[in-house]
């Protein structure tokens, strides 16, 4: 009791330090087998039952400590996909979260911290539909405390109109989920005896469906992703583009938009898990770049620690597992949870096996040549030589997901399953799993049977393209163009003259401006011919009269209203990134010239935190050279710049005809 009073005092004394108090208390009390309950009090009764020991109260949200509570009867619950594998569970706290669809007013204690999606910080195991909706899950101590703090601050999100009302830590018997699984299998067996089972079709590619985390409440999270939230916020009160502005290229734009749109609504992120091997990631990334439209997708390396800790599940269009290392139980649960939420997964020699499948050693040894028969969506077959992973798939007699056979290899006595598609139920995510090395090129240093693999290389790409297309990706390749020349454009003679003087001093007699990102060969006005070395890009200080069909200097100058910013322009139709154009010595250019780099297309656009920036033609892409005194008000608040720039763009758009701001009194 004394400890409890001390915690309450600390909270009253230091206000939001209650977050640290909650975390500390969880770590201390969990060892003593106490139960922690986070609860929202009902408006009609804001007093706490006497039998509960109050730990902390924040408005209508309370935390209290009770004797250990057991979760005994799961007979009326339904297992989720994260329960589909066996093995030791390494998470430390089991809990039940209870929610209703009843609307509730926002808490006055809600902070400005980001909303947490509950399933990103735990492993959901089973659910019980109805009112109230309940789900049982497991989480680490740290993640459980994060969920608790988010609940107290009214920023815990469940989706589909559900509002969490209570979180209770419970004691979960190790055999409880296994007993529930066996019970549901018995129920399914009885149903199968009552009706003639339908034979699985031999590979008919179907449109992707989503395996929701729960069938009725939990998984329509995609509509609430950050990108969609920004989208809806941006178009608020902005009418459709007027007919006289939009009619000219409407059909062409609709065709382009249809090509780029993905049906799931998820951000276009493709994550590649290689067990932490950077070399393998670069190989898989290079392979994917050769198969998919790089203007449509951003490819990232998902490292083991990120896979377990970061909330990537709702922001991933496709997960590629490209390692034959045995996955830990934690990683298996995480990846199966992604599938349970409607995710798409491609397994390349991966040990992941959803329910319905198991792995066994194949007749062909690892990395030895074998003959693959692959059935395409139009029922035609491809014969090709590939390397075996050393394993093959076998249907699990215990049941599970629907398994479609897509590819077989020839064994000693029979044909063996090498490529399969797995789904769970009518509204499922899907996984295409391969136990042949489609990722291995014929010229790999350890590849066996070079000539056979070389002959089958075209069909290898055909199979990969077929699989990626079935998983919802666009495989209409757009050739990555080479970099175009860079032009110095002037909107102010005095500022451009100052920049040219600085540039001549930096380039010296060689006329080359050197930097880590690449060397620029400066072509001065009047130069008739210039020798350009390999790897150098050309910067023309006096552009021709018609230097681009994608940029109008006259229109740009007409709308530019600044005194300095953006007055000196470095323009390129195509460049790796506008940021690269202003790196190196360009960062030392005089502040007075207002330097800006503009491109019609970027081939390697850069976002914050190592993120890729998709930059097909038609986007507004520029990098502005801006210097701020560190001791200025804005210099002390640098992160505000990104928000100011975004607001400036919105305000600029709203000055266009048909996009004006409408004020409603």
Quick summary:
The protein has 665 residues and is α/β, with parallel strands linked by helices. The chain contains 16 helices and 31 strands.
Question: What would your notes on this structure say?
Answer:
The protein is α/β, with parallel strands linked by helices. The protein folds into 3 domains: 1-82 and 89-104 and 113-182, no CATH class; 269-471, 3-Layer(aba) Sandwich (Rossmann fold); 486-627, no CATH class. 26% of the residues lie in helices and 24% in strands. It contains 16 helices and 31 strands. The strands form 6 sheets. Strands 1, 2, 3, 4, 5, 6, 8, 9 and 11 form a 9-stranded mixed beta sheet that branches. Strands 13-12-14-15-22-21-20-17-18 form a 9-stranded mixed beta sheet. The chain has a 7-stranded mixed beta sheet with strand order 24-25-26-23-27-28-31. Strand 14, helix 10 (329-340) and strand 15 (344-348) form a beta-alpha-beta unit. Helix 2 crosses helix 3. The longest helix has 19 residues, at 176-194. The radius of gyration is 30 Å and the shape is flat. Mean pLDDT is 76; it is low at 7-16, 81-91 and 192-261.
């Amino acid at each position: 009791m004394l400890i409890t009073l001390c915690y309450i005092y600390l909270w009253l004394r230091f206000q939001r330090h209650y977050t640290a108090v909650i975390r500390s208390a969880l770590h201390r009390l969990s060892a003593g087998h106490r139960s922690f309950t986070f609860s929202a009090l009902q408006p009609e009764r804001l007093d706490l039952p006497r039998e509960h020991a109050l730990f902390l109260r924040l408005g209508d949200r309370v935390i209290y400590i009770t004797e250990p509570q057991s979760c005994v009867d799961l007979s009326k619950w339904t297992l989720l996909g994260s329960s589909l594998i066996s093995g030791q569970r390494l998470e430390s706290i089991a809990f039940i979260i209870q929610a209703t669809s009843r609307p509730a007013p926002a808490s006055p204690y809600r902070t400005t911290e980001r909303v947490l999606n509950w399933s990103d910080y735990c492993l959901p195991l089973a659910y019980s539909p109805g009112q109230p909706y309940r789900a049982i899950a497991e989480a680490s101590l740290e993640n459980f405390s994060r969920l608790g703090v988010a609940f107290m601050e009214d920023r815990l999100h469940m989706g589909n109109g559900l509002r969490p009302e209570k979180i209770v830590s419970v004691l979960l018997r190790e055999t409880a989920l296994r007993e529930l699984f066996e019970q549901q299998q018995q129920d399914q067996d009885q149903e199968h005896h009552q009706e003639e089972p339908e034979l699985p079709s031999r590979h008919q590619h179907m449109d992707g469906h989503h395996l929701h985390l729960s069938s009725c409440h939990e998984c329509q999270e995609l509509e609430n992703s950050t990108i969609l939230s920004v989208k809806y916020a941006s178009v608020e009160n902005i009418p459709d583009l007027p007919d006289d502005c939009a009619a000219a290229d409407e059909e062409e734009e609709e065709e382009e938009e249809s090509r780029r749109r993905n049906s799931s609504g998820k951000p276009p992120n493709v994550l590649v898990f290689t067990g932490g091997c950077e070399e393998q990631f670069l190989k898989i990334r290079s392979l994917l770049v050769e198969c998919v439209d790089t203007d449509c997708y951003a490819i990232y390396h998902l490292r083991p620690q990120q896979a377990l800790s970061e909330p990537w599940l709702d922001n991933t269009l496709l997960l590629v597992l490209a390692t034959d290392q045995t996955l830990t139980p934690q990683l298996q649960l995480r990846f199966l949870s992604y599938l349970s939420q409607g995710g798409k997964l491609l397994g390349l020699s991966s040990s992941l096996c959803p329910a319905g499948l198991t792995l066994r050693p194949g007749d062909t040894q690892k990395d030895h040549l074998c003959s693959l028969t692959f059935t395409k969506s139009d029922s035609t077959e491809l014969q090709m030589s590939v390397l075996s992973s050393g394993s093959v798939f076998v249907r699990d007699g215990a049941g599970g997901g629907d398994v479609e056979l897509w590819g077989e290899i020839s064994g000693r006595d029979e044909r063996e399953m090498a490529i399969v598609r797995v789904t769970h139920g009518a509204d499922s995510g899907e996984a295409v799993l391969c136990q042949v090395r489609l990722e291995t090129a014929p010229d790999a240093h350890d590849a066996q049977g070079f000539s056979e693999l070389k002959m089958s290389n075209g069909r290898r790409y055909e199979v990969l393209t077929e699989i990626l297309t079935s998983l919802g990706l666009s495989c209409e390749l757009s050739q990555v163009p080479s970099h175009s020349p860079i032009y110095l454009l002037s909107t102010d003679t005095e500022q451009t003259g100052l920049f040219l003087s600085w540039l001549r001093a930096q380039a010296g007699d060689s006329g080359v401006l050197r930097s880590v990102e690449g060397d620029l060969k400066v072509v001065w006005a009047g130069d008739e011919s210039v020798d350009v070395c390999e790897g150098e890009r050309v910067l023309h200080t006096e552009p021709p009269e018609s230097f681009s069909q994608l940029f109008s200097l006259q229109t740009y100058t007409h709308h530019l209203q600044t005194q300095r910013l953006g007055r000196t322009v470095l323009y390129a139709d195509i460049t790796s990134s506008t940021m690269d154009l202003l790196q190196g010595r360009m960062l030392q250019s005089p502040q007075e010239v207002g330097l800006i780099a503009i491109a019609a297309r970027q081939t390697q656009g850069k976002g914050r935190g190592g993120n890729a920036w998709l930059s097909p033609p038609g986007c507004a892409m520029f990098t502005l050279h801006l210097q701020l005194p560190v001791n200025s008000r804005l210099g002390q608040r640098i992160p505000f710049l990104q928000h100011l720039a975004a607001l400036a763009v919105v305000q600029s758009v709203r000055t266009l005809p048909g996009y004006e701001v409408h004020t409603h009194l």
